[in-house]
Write a structure and sequence with these properties.
Structural class: alpha+beta
Shape: elongated
Helix content: 40-55%
Order of helices and strands: HEEEHHEEHE
Oligomer: single chain
Radius of gyration: 26 Å
Strand content: 15-25%
Number of helices: 4
Length: 161
């Protein structure tokens, strides 16, 4: 008698969960409608002053950077990352490709000191925001303020030693 009650109870629970999921997920997506009955569109992002149109932006992918994270006990981690630069036009793209070795050297010099003092680390985990700000500042020093729109961090991998 007890096993039969347990089986019936389990079937009721599964049936209720299945029905709830069916009614929850069966609803079609609804568009946001404004007061006039029109479908509301997301506002266009404001463009930064002095930057070219998004359609003209070009991207320059740099070779992967591999950096050790050195603490007082030696190398604790190895950090690998792929950085992509968003530049305003074709001329800036050619300039960034030409100065890529100098840019990578500047990145390595800047981050090596930062990572060794753990300024951008929080309990061993890399904080992307401060790192991106530093990379942007270094890019502006090497390529000029108008040479780079943004620094994009495509891939970050931390490997403990």
């Amino acid at each position: 008698m007890k096993p039969l009650l347990i089986i019936i109870f389990a079937l009721v629970l599964l049936g209720g969960g299945g029905a709830g999921a069916y009614f929850y997920f069966a609803k079609p997506a609804q568009a946001a409608v404004d007061a006039s009955g029109e479908i509301a569109h997301a506002p266009k992002a404001a463009k930064k002053k002095g930057h070219a149109k998004d359609a003209e932006s070009k991207f320059v992918e740099l070779d992967p950077l591999i950096l050790p994270v050195v603490t007082k006990n030696g190398v604790s981690q190895v950090l690998s990352m792929v950085i992509v630069l968003e530049v305003p036009n074709e001329e800036a793209m050619k300039n960034a490709e030409h100065l890529a070795p100098r840019l990578k050297d500047a990145f390595i010099q800047d981050m090596y000191g930062v990572l060794s003092h753990e300024a951008v680390m929080n309990s061993g985990v890399l904080q992307v925001g401060p790192l991106k700000n530093r990379l942007t500042r270094v890019s502006h020093k090497v390529l000029g303020e108008d040479g780079v729109n943004d620094v994009l961090i495509q891939v970050i991998q931390q490997r403990s030693m």
